[in-house]
Amino acid sequence: MTGTSPTVANWELMLRIRSRADDQGLKTSTIVKALDVSQQYWSALNRGRGTLAEDKLKDLLSLLEFDAEEREEFACTARHRERSTSVR
């Protein structure tokens, strides 16, 4: 995911998260409860509207059982996204 715009990186991140959730059979209701976010907010994230806070992202990656290498990749993407949006 490196070398892409923050928008594209976020889109790719959510694709991978949705795919992992589907693979594990996790329902949206389980995810929103675990993250303590609304159904509407989660839906917006899945449509590429908004970004998940870093602490919520860590919780989600743990819930979805991503390995350490993948978690670090996502953390780097989140840091890049935050730097890119704070410069504007």
Verbal overview:
- The chain has 5 helices and no strands.
- It has 88 residues and is mostly helical.
- The protein starts with 5 loop residues before the first helix and ends with a helix.
- The chain has a single domain, classed as lambda repressor-like DNA-binding domains (434 Repressor (Amino-terminal Domain), Orthogonal Bundle), CATH 1.10.260.40.
Radius of gyration: 12 Å
Q: Looking at CATH, which topology would you report?
A: 434 Repressor (Amino-terminal Domain)
3D shape: globular
Which CATH class applies here? Mainly Alpha
Structural class: mainly alpha
Helix content: over 70%
Can you tell me the residue ranges where pLDDT is under 50 for at least 5 consecutive residues? none
CATH H-level superfamily: lambda repressor-like DNA-binding domains
Give the tally of structural domains.
1
By CATH, the architecture is named Orthogonal Bundle
Mean pLDDT: 83
Per DSSP E runs of 2 or more residues, the count of β-strands stands at 0
Strand content: under 5%
- From the N-terminal CA to the C-terminal CA, the straight-line distance is 21 Å
Major sheet: size, sense and barrel closure?
none
Pfam family, one: HTH_31
Protein name: HTH cro/C1-type domain-containing protein
InterPro entries: Ig/MHC_CS (IPR003006), Lambda_DNA-bd_dom_sf (IPR010982)
Organism: Nocardia tengchongensis
